[in-house]
């Protein structure tokens, strides 16, 4: 071997770890590439929506298209319809999340002890979740038909006659919330049931030995320990409820009158029916901002609870 | 194909025998009804080829794709499509969507500039968006081009009000069918609004079809209060433009009310005029007293189904809605009667606002000339006659079909249908003021009607609010 060969071999030996190191450095980027692509895939329509929201842009009036900057947003400030949309969307969200949470927790507590019956009941209770919400709405539309619907018949038996369900402004919100509760309570139930069954047994056994009252156990032990699960379930449902479209649209198209013009229904009508791209995009950006703020609150609380739980464990 | 059948088709194409004779001889040859319909469609298309003066094979090998709504008109076209394929050597594929989502699909396809579809079904109101947006083609240049248009296609045979109603200049408020108007689509089949009623119920109650709005309200209330287990009058009520355009607008304009007025060249909403308030008040009262309980969810389907199921005594809606119930597989099949209706007792004639299913050409089509061939064929006398006589393509848009003896004979089986058409047709057209915010305006109008029927707001106050809101929207859109 010549000295030149030695030098080459030495260089190669020195480069080998360098290449390996370089590869090791590249690995995280390669692994995160799919996530990066998905992020870009999300970012593009998001940025496009921001852009459209700054335009006066109706497909039926292309000649009037142009930048109005924040006019679409500023118009919202003085637009009663917009504030009603905010109000009814938040009301719908609060009602559905609270009712589903209470019912879901109640059912989960009833089914907490693993047994054949409870496991079977849990499985059967999941069935509404298997029905597409739009189909569930059509089913409920038939059941609540004042002329031949089974539910109209049943409420008639208890003396409530001429109840018009989703076709009357005074009962429309109640009706769509009812359908939402029927469809999504099992979701909360299954999450909380999983949480309940995974809680450590020792605190409950100690409480039982000390003869602690059941209400005290529930409020001071079960509920605090279950809180991360409750927050997670609430966050998911909150995100879904504030973006509700299919149930409300299939049952009422946002009516009667403007009773149920929640965000997504209003944005959908603005784009697909009225071809008002600018207003539709601005509405969705406001919805995004509200959703983002609410989920931040939830996530911060969830992290705080987790830290507290870790602290307690340490 | 057998020799005898081929000769039979040739004889019909050469007009040596009439259609009735053709059908009789086909039956003698033992051909099924479906096959006879197919043969008839093909023979009519042969006739089209013979008299056209254009080369129907010019675009042989080209493939076209259609965007269709699930509707008896689309069914009639699909049943006859082989005739077009044989005539031109072109291939045609199609997507069919239910009406609930159809126009969303059209908006999505056209707004994206997709060249997937060459032609599509549309209504005239929709072209007030599609046309100015540049999504569909002005067909005037094709209609006037004799090198591309068959000599016997005969545009003038299409009912004049329909030709006018499907053309617009794009200037908000400018009348339909004016000199500068662009022909955004070709009328395909259409519907008038009149009374379709349950004959048995009316006979048993010894009442005649209503002749004006007061009479209608009285009779509807009578039916609701009777022991017939039906409500008096079915009309649409969903939160949509579809609630405004049939019976409501037909009655509204019969009293001289307008949707907009033009003041100094600017459109102003006019739903709170005295005539509008008076009519709307009566309409709301009519629904409250004798309409369906869940009226605010009622679309075309519910209105029609209730009449067909014997749940309503009558409807003031599209005549063809009653026709489909009278001829379909319904409980009240054969028991529906038809009557022309002028809401205003002082009106000279009924004024039905029309809905026209039409065909338009996508501006993004890569085969525009070939698509024009398809549009000609689909709106030809031959196909219109086939659809009207053998399928359910009523109301036909061509005068020649209305004059056809076979068609008349078929329609005579529907009590009063031809009479209501004859009485209604002269005053029928689109009565909306064409403007690009059509769907915003009519949805707000329907929502306000819902509030008034639910007694959330008094009629006069509600209409004042509606006008203020629409003017505000017009201003925001830069139209005022």
Automatic annotation (TrEMBL), chain B:
This is Extracellular solute-binding protein. SUPFAM superfamilies: Periplasmic binding protein-like II. It comes from Jiella sonneratiae. The lineage of its organism: Bacteria, Pseudomonadati, Pseudomonadota, Alphaproteobacteria, Hyphomicrobiales. Coiled coil: none annotated. It is found in: Periplasm. Its main location: periplasm. Signal peptide: none annotated. It comes from the Bacteria. Belongs to the bacterial solute-binding protein 1 family. The keyword Transport applies. Keywords: Periplasm, Signal, Transport.
């Amino acid at each position: 071997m010549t000295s030149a060969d030695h030098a080459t071999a030495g260089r190669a030996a020195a480069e080998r770890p360098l290449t390996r190191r370089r590869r090791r450095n590249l690995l995280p980027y390669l692994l995160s590439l799919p996530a990066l692509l998905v992020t870009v895939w999300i970012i593009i329509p998001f940025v496009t929506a921001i852009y459209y929201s700054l335009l006066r842009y109706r497909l039926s009036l292309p000649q009037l298209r142009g930048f109005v900057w924040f006019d679409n947003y500023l118009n919202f400030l003085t637009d009663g319809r917009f504030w009603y949309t905010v109000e009814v969307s938040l009301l719908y969200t609060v009602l559905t999340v609270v009712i589903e949470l209470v019912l879901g927790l109640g059912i989960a507590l009833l089914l907490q002890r693993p047994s054949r019956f409870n496991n079977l009941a849990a499985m059967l209770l999941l069935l509404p979740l298997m029905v597409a919400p739009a189909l569930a709405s059509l089913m409920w539309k038939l059941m609540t038909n004042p002329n031949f619907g089974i539910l109209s018949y049943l409420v008639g038996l208890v003396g409530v006659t001429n109840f018009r369900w989703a076709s009357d402004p005074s009962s429309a919100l109640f009706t769509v919330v009812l359908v939402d509760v029927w469809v999504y309570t099992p979701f909360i139930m299954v999450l909380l049931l999983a949480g309940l069954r995974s809680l450590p047994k020792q605190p409950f056994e100690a409480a039982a030995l000390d003869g602690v009252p059941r209400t005290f156990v529930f409020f001071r032990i079960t509920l605090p320990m279950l809180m991360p699960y409750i927050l997670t379930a609430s966050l998911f449902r909150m995100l879904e409820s504030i973006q509700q479209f299919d149930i409300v649209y299939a049952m009422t198209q946002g009516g009667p009158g403007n009773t149920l013009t929640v965000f997504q229904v209003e944005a959908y009508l603005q784009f697909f029916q009225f071809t008002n791209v600018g207003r539709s995009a601005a509405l969705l950006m406001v919805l995004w901002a509200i959703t983002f703020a609410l989920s931040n609150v939830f996530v911060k609380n969830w992290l705080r609870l987790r830290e507290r739980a870790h602290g307690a464990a340490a | 194909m057998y020799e005898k059948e081929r000769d039979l088709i040739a004889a019909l194409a050469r007009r040596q025998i009439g259609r009735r004779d053709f059908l009789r001889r086909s039956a003698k040859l033992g051909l099924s009804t479906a096959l006879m319909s197919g043969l008839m469609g093909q023979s009519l298309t042969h006739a089209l080829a013979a008299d056209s003066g254009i080369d129907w094979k010019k675009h042989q090998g080209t493939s076209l794709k259609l965007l269709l709504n699930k509707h008896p008109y689309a069914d009639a076209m699909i049943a006859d499509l082989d005739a077009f394929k044989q005539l031109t050597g072109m291939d045609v594929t199609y997507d069919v969507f239910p009406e609930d989502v159809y126009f969303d699909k059209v908006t999505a396809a056209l707004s994206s500039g997709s060249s997937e579809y060459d032609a599509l079904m549309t209504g005239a109101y929709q072209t007030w968006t599609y046309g100015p947006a540049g999504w569909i083609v002005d067909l005037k240049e094709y209609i006037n081009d004799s090198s591309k248009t068959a000599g016997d296609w005969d545009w003038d045979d299409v009912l004049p009000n329909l030709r006018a109603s499907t053309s617009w200049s794009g200037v908000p408020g400018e009348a339909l069918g004016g000199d500068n108007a662009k022909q955004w689509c070709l009328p395909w089949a259409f519907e008038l609004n009149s009374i379709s009623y349950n004959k048995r119920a009316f006979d048993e109650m010894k009442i005649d079809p209503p002749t004006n709005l007061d009479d209608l309200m009285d009779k509807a209330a009578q039916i609701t209060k009777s022991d017939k287990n039906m409500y008096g009058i079915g009309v649409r009520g969903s939160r949509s433009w579809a609630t405004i355009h049939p019976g409501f607008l037909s009655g509204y304009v019969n009293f001289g009310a307008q949707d907009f007025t033009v003041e100094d060249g600017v459109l102003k909403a006019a739903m709170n005029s005295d005539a509008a308030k008076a009519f709307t008040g009566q309409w709301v009262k009519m629904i409250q007293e004798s309409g369906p309980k869940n009226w605010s969810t009622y679309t075309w389907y519910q209105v029609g189904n209730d009449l067909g199921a014997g749940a309503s005594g009558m409807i003031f809606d599209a005549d063809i809605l009653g026709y489909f119930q009278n001829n379909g597989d319904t409980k009240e099949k054969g028991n529906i009667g038809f009557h022309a209706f002028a809401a205003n007792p002082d009106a000279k004639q009924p004024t039905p606002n029309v809905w026209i299913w039409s065909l338009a050409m996508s501006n993004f089509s890569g085969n525009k000339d070939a698509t024009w061939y398809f549009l000609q064929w689909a709106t030809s006398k031959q196909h219109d006659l086939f659809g009207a006589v053998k399928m359910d393509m009523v109301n036909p848009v061509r005068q020649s079909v209305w004059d056809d003896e076979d068609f008349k004979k078929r329609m005579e089986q529907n009590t009063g249908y031809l009479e209501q058409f004859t009485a209604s047709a002269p005053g029928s057209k689109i009565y909306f003021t064409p403007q690009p915010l059509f769907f915003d305006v009519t949805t707000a109008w329907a929502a306000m009607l819902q509030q008034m029927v639910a007694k959330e707001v008094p009629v006069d106050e509600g209409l004042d609010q509606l006008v203020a809101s629409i003017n505000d929207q017009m201003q925001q859109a830069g139209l005022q």
